[in-house]
From TrEMBL:
SUPFAM superfamilies per the UniProt record, alphabetical: NAD(P)-binding Rossmann-fold domains
Pfam family, any one: NAD_binding_10
MF terms (GO), sorted A to Z: biliverdin reductase [NAD(P)H] activity; riboflavin reductase (NADPH) activity
Domain of life the protein comes from: Bacteria
Record's protein name: Epimerase
Domain NAD(P)-binding: 8-199
InterPro entries per UniProt: NAD(P)-bd_dom (IPR016040), NAD(P)-bd_dom_sf (IPR036291), Polyketide_Oxido-like (IPR051606)
Length: 211
């Protein structure tokens, strides 16, 4: 049984990854500010209320973990203000993992983060910059922190997220020449994340995920 810490586990991709990791037989420590509101119930689920920006909370949650899955998000209203959540939380997490000797990090950013921004189509460039630019600028910083961390990292860059079902039929695009936007369900993103708990194929890579 692998001990997995999932940060941002109360909703979206994080909640779905929690569900799927439990189904796969892992022990899951679910860290979120609203962890007590997680409706899942399982003997292998440990709900931990904490803040991804607080070093003490994160270091305590990392202790004893084999793998960390980081799924962070901001509210729509926050997209129009300066964004630093992704980089700030990653600095805290990388330091905590180093302190506790935990090496494996699986993190979600998105298509358009880091060097994948160059693959955004011409017609999508302006709306992307207007609506998502602040968040994705910070996700770019986040990716740099992860890549420089010395950890065994995998970064998942999903395209446009939907609430569709888990299909297991999605593309993992590893080469820049393949990168493109597309849709993918949160459940399928979670499927990829949970597979990386035991699969090291994509260590040191940042693939784009689309249907």
């Amino acid at each position: 049984m692998t001990h997995v810490l999932i940060i941002g586990a109360s909703k979206g991709i994080g909640l779905e990854a929690t569900r799927q990791a439990l189904q796969a037989g892992h022990h899951v420590r679910a860290l979120a500010r609203s962890a007590t509101g997680i409706t899942l119930s399982d003997a292998n689920l440990e709900k931990v209320q904490g803040d991804a920006l607080k070093a003490a909370d994160v270091e305590a949650a990392v202790a004893g973990a084999d793998v960390v899955i980081q799924t962070l998000g901001v509210a729509v209203g926050d997209l129009f203000k300066p964004v630093s959540l992704f980089s700030d939380a990653t600095r805290v997490l990388v330091a905590a993992m180093a302190a506790k000797g935990v090496k494996r990090l699986i993190s979600v950013t998105g298509f358009g983060a880091g060097d994948s921004r160059a693959s955004i189509g011409f017609l999508q460039q302006l709306p992307f910059k207007l609506f998502l630019g602040r968040a994705y600028d910070d996700k770019g910083v986040q990716e740099g922190l992860i890549k420089d961390s010395g950890l065994d990292w995998t970064i998942a860059r999903p395209g446009i997220l939907t609430n569709g079902p888990r299909t297991g039929r999605y593309q993992v695009l590893t080469e820049p020449s393949q990168w493109r936007n597309g849709i993918i369900s949160r459940a399928d993103v979670a499927d990829f994340l949970v597979r990386q708990i035991e699969d090291r194929t994509y260590v040191g890579q940042a693939p784009v995920l689309v249907n």
